[in-house]
Amino acid sequence: MSKFGDLIDVEVPVLFDFFTEWDDASNAMHAVLLDVAAALGDKVKVIKIDVDKNQALSDALRIKDLPTLIIYKSGDMKWRQCGALDADTIIDLLQQQL
Question: Degrees (nearest 5) of the Cα angle 25, 60, 95?
Fold first, then answer.
């Protein structure tokens, strides 16, 4: 989990999308997150984490529902929600952290 610590301990907001390939709602978020990343560029990081391949991290963060979206900044969790959101809502949430 030290790698995760390195990912979240940065000055820019980091949006994590915890997903699985077999979950329809998770798959629907892929295009939304591409739009978010394109809109905000290098002002934020968008990272997708497959819970099936990262079970220990998913358990540590108590990921139960998919997709789960979490925003970290400077090592602190700033926001968390389960379920799909539209790109504009996610962009607004990330801009609040800039």
Answer: 55
Query: Which domains does the chain show, CATH number per domain?
Result: 2-95 (3.40.30.10)
Residue whose tokens read 């979240």: 8
Look-up of token digits 């925003």? 71
User: Strand pairing partners for 76?
Assistant: 73
As a whole-number percent, the residues of the chain with pLDDT over 90 amount to: 96
pLDDT the model gives residue 2: 58
- Phi, psi of 84, rounded to the nearest 5 degrees: -75, 150
Look at the block and give the residue holding tokens 């990081």. Answer: 45
pLDDT at 67: 97
Q: Which residues pair with 72 in a beta bridge?
A: 14, 77
Q: In what order do the strands lie in the sheet containing 45-50?
A: 45-50, 14-19, 68-73, 76-82
DSSP 84: -
Chain-centroid distance of CA 56 in Å reads: 17
